[in-house]
């Protein structure tokens, strides 16, 4: 229903018993980041085996096919289509045979110079099998003359720009890499096998570690490559760290606003805590008298708790979300749009009737969902509806792996605050300021990417876009 669509999950497990099964559970924990397709490649030291399919993790994998993914190393991916189309060719992992053997790769993010690269590679004779920007990397690696995959990956990375959290799997090694801006999250954890040996896991969010009993170690640093080796005949030691690029950290601030699970640690901070701080800052900036504060579930819950704590206004779960709604095939008529919101969100009339309400949501994209939410609250008898948003106004699209509408569809990019309020039909509409957002992060160490709020793009290809 939100028009921000998540931007893929990646996972890798190395020297882990039942590696594919563990990767599959990690993907299950990361299902919120992509529901279009799911896939896992495993290595038994001699061959790479891949299973992927369209749909949720539970649809793609079962006890029988997971048993085919043999070996102690595996990488996995949940896809939400950003670059590429919705065909199985564009599901990941991408697998390739080349002159050094076999490899598979998973990618979260978006390469901003992918089209330019693709054109150059096609002119040189490359034949692409998918629409994925990630396939550029496979060609760059295959065409490289160096005698090892690690150096070939590094050379290929020097050709690309944009956002990437990548995991490569060869027959015996695994490589995890984050772009120099650290736009997309990737963290490292440790798993103790039943024989006491140590294995490693990398994943987009730490909630994947909790499910499989892994211990969080740290983030993969911006511009860093972790090399996992020793599978098979050698002893697996800690991953080797190579700082391929000088870090220029600008992690995606929207991970905190909406994408990441609140029980995850991303970019070193717990998401729930940050969201709650956003609500506190929102309350400092927008002091409103009301009978209660209610969240738009689920992403507005932590911010609404923060708002309630700071303002002293009662928190109520005035809207209940139905978690079991899958895809809906609804015609875009007015009546049907309303049905779509009602399928997922239902207000509790007994709580809302005759009350003045502050509703907290995480963002406004086209404004149509907010309009429907305000409408159903009024239909439930709310006396006044004040809509407060725990992030600034979204005025520009994302080029870094998040599927966002064009600028012309972003309501706040094209209308004044009063016009947006009027369209949504709320009595009050307020947003958290950029300064308030920064305060809620309590971060002095580095900048964040917030280009969808301030248009300050950071990579060489989209920098300076207006
Ligand atoms: S533009 Fe917005 S959604 Fe995209 S990476 Fe930057 S902060 Fe995240």
Question: Could you write a compact summary of the structure shown?
Answer:
The chain has 466 residues and is of the alpha+beta class. Helix content is 29%, strand content 24%.
Quickly list its features:
466 residues, alpha+beta, Glutamine Phosphoribosylpyrophosphate, subunit 1, domain 1, Rossmann fold, 2 domains, 7-stranded antiparallel beta sheet, 6-stranded antiparallel beta sheet, 17 helices, 21 strands, elongated, binds iron/sulfur cluster
Report on this structure.
With 466 residues, the protein is an alpha+beta fold. The chain folds into 2 domains: 9-249, Aminohydrolase, N-terminal nucleophile (Ntn) domain (Glutamine Phosphoribosylpyrophosphate, subunit 1, domain 1); 270-454, 3-Layer(aba) Sandwich (Rossmann fold), CATH 3.40.50. Helix content is 29%, strand content 24%. It has helices spanning 19-29, 57-60, 63-67, 114-123, 135-143, 149-157, 207-212, 254-259, 271-285, 301-311, 334-344, 349-352, 368-379, 411-414, 417-424, 434-441, 451-454; strands at residues 9-14, 37-43, 48-54, 73-79, 94-98, 101-111, 162-169, 174-178, 187-192, 198-203, 215-219, 224-228, 240-243, 265-266, 269-270, 292-295, 319-321, 345-347, 356-361, 384-389, 428-431. The strands form 5 sheets. Strands 3-2-4-1-10-9-11 form a 7-stranded antiparallel beta sheet. Strands 5-6-7-8-12-13 form a 6-stranded antiparallel beta sheet. The chain has a 4-stranded parallel beta sheet with strand order 16-19-20-21, with helices on both faces. The two termini are 28 Å apart. The model has no long low-confidence stretch (mean pLDDT 92). Bound molecules: iron/sulfur cluster. Iron/sulfur cluster is lined by residues 183, 252-254, 398, 400, 402, 449-452. Residues 183, 252-254, 398, 400, 402, 449-452 line the site of iron/sulfur cluster.
């Amino acid at each position: 229903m939100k028009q921000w669509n998540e931007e893929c999950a990646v996972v890798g497990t190395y020297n882990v018993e039942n590696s594919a099964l563990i990767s599959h559970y990690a993907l299950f924990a990361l299902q919120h980041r992509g529901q279009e397709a799911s896939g896992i490649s495993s290595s038994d030291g001699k061959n790479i085996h891949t299973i992927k399919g369209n749909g949720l993790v539970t649809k793609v994998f079962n006890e029988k096919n997971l048993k085919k993914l043999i070996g102690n190393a595996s990488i996995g991916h949940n896809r939400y289509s950003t670059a590429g189309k919705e065909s199985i060719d564009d599901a990941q992992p991408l697998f390739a045979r080349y002159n050094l053997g076999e490899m598979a790769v998973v990618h979260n993010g978006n390469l901003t110079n992918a089209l330019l690269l693709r054109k150059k590679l096609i002119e040189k004779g490359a034949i692409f099998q998918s629409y994925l920007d990630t396939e550029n990397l496979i060609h760059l690696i295959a065409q490289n003359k160096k005698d090892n995959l690690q150096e070939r990956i590094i050379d290929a990375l020097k050709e690309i720009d944009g956002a990437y959290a990548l995991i490569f799997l060869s027959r015996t090694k695994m490589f995890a890499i984050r772009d120099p801006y650290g736009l997309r999250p990737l963290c490292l954890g440790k798993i103790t096998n039943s024989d006491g040996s140590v294995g490693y896991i990398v994943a987009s969010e730490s909630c994947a570690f909790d499910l499989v009993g892994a211990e969080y170690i740290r983030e993969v640093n911006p511009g860093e490559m972790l090399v996992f080796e020793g599978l098979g005949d050698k002893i697996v030691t800690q991953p080797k760290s190579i700082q391929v690029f000088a870090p220029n950290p600008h992690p995606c601030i929207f991970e905190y606003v909406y994408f990441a699970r609140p029980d995850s640690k991303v970019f070193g901070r717990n998401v729930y805590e940050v969201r709650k701080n956003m609500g506190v800052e929102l309350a400092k900036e927008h002091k409103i008298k009301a009978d209660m504060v209610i969240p738009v579930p689920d992403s507005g819950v932590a911010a609404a708790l923060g708002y309630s704590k700071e303002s002293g206004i009662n928190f109520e779960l005035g809207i209940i979300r139905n978690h079991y709604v899958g895809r809906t095939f609804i015609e875009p008529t007015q009546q049907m749009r309303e049905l779509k919101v009602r399928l997922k969100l239902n207000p509790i009339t007994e709580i809302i009737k005759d009350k003045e309400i502050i509703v907290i949501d995480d963002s406004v994209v086209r404004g149509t969902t907010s309009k429907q939410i305000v409408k159903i609250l009024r239909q439930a008898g709310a006396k006044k509806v004040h809509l407060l948003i725990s992030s600034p106004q979204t005025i520009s699209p994302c080029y870094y792996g998040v599927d966002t509408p064009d600028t012309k569809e972003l309501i706040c990019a094209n209308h004044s605050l009063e016009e947006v309020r009027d369209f949504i039909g709320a009595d009050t509409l307020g947003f958290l300021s950029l300064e308030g957002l920064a305060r809620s992060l309590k971060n002095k160490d580095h900048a964040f990417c917030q280009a969808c709020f301030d248009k300050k793009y950071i990579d060489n290809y989209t920098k300076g876009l207006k």
